[in-house]
Amino acid sequence: MAAPLLQAQVDINAPVSKVWALISDFRRMPQWSPQCRLMRPLGPVRQGTRTLNLNRRNRMFWTTTSTVVEMVPEEKLAFRVNMNNTIWSYELEQIPGGTRVIESRHAENGVKAVSDMAVNALFGGTASFERELVEGMNASLARIKAAAESG
């Protein structure tokens, strides 16, 4: 059974506007996420926008689609992965000296049965896969931090 909430956070020495520009540019998602190879929005990024995604884990590739479910500029961006109904979000908060970013994977209502079966059959089970997702969140946030703090 999927954990209801997975989360990671980072403090970045850059203004919210700069961090938002990086996070809200879905085409750059492969630069941040170790698992994402492609994220293409089908139109301007706003609530309701759908994306086509390509993910990779070792030698395995799979496609998904997602839908932006919440967008508050410079505050929050959330999208639902349609294949499993999880919601991924980035929340930005201005802090002294920069921006705090919290990345979350919400599965409070569980995931679709087909997703559970795939994770157990192909990814070594839920616990192992979710540990890998949190590691990926931390890697993504570290990459966003590096990009935001450079030049």
From TrEMBL:
Pfam families: Polyketide_cyc2. CDD domains: SRPBCC (cd07812). InterPro entries: Polyketide_cyclase/dehydratase (IPR019587), START-like_dom_sf (IPR023393). This is Polyketide cyclase. It comes from Mycobacterium cookii.
